[in-house]
Design brief:
39% of the residues lie in helices and 21% in strands. It has 209 residues and is of the alpha/beta class. It has a six-stranded parallel β-sheet with strand order 1-10-7-4-2-3.
């Protein structure tokens, strides 16, 4: 990554962390994927039960592999024949891992979901939620964050999943009502009533979609 972009991200991350703190959420800055992995593992005690949604960023920093290999109760929904059972187990987990489709530079998180298992777990249930967010997802305001979620994250994810939606074919949101749409629920997390529940690790890298 260009040195000027790295420096810009470092400065922007401090503003975003201040915004998160003002919203009763804890922000962390990681200069690399490796540092992000270390911060995340420091936050999760051994023996914890952990679940996650389909967060590519969690995989990209190596966190899911580390948890599977370590002394943790990692609820791997891909290992369950009954996916619904695995999703329901997430609500009583010690930790839920996620990324964000976008966030503002003053700490508001945007997430779009098809089945609602991810956004519902972020909103309520697990004792702690840890977000892994690349600096490529930080936007200047709520409007631009929503546009990013609808026009970058959603089309890329439906293409990845092989779904049949207008955005998969055209690359931009059509506000569709397709049976395959993943834009069924939109969660805006602007404040956490429960101090210490939500942590956001900002990574100086391009992660996820």
């Amino acid at each position: 990554m260009d040195a000027n972009i790295v420096k810009r991200n470092e400065i922007l991350a401090q503003k975003t962390i201040a915004g998160l703190n003002s919203r009763n959420m804890k922000g962390y800055y990681a200069a690399s994927k490796e540092e992000a992995l270390k911060i995340a593992l420091d936050l999760i005690p051994e023996g914890s039960s952990i679940s996650m949604g389909g967060a590519m960023s969690v995989h990209e920093i190596g966190l899911s592999d580390a948890l599977k290999a370590g002394n943790y109760n990692f609820i791997d929904r891909d290992a369950y024949e009954d996916k619904r059972q695995a999703m329901l187990m997430a609500y009583d987990a010690d930790f839920f891992l996620s990324s964000a489709n976008a966030m503002t530079d003053d700490g508001i998180l945007i997430n779009i979901d098809g089945n609602a298992n991810r956004v519902s777990a972020i909103a309520q249930g697990p004792k702690h939620v840890i977000f892994i967010v690349g600096m490529n997802k930080v936007c200047s305001d709520l409007d631009s964050a929503m546009k990013r979620a609808r026009n970058i994250a959603a089309p890329t994810n439906v293409q990845r999943l092989g779904l049949n939606t207008p955005c998969a074919k055209k690359g931009t949101c059509f506000d569709c009502k397709s049976p395959d749409t993943i834009c069924c629920q939109i969660l805006i997390t602007r404040f956490s009533r429960h101090e210490g529940r939500i942590s956001v690790i900002l990574v100086n890298d391009n992660l996820g979609f």
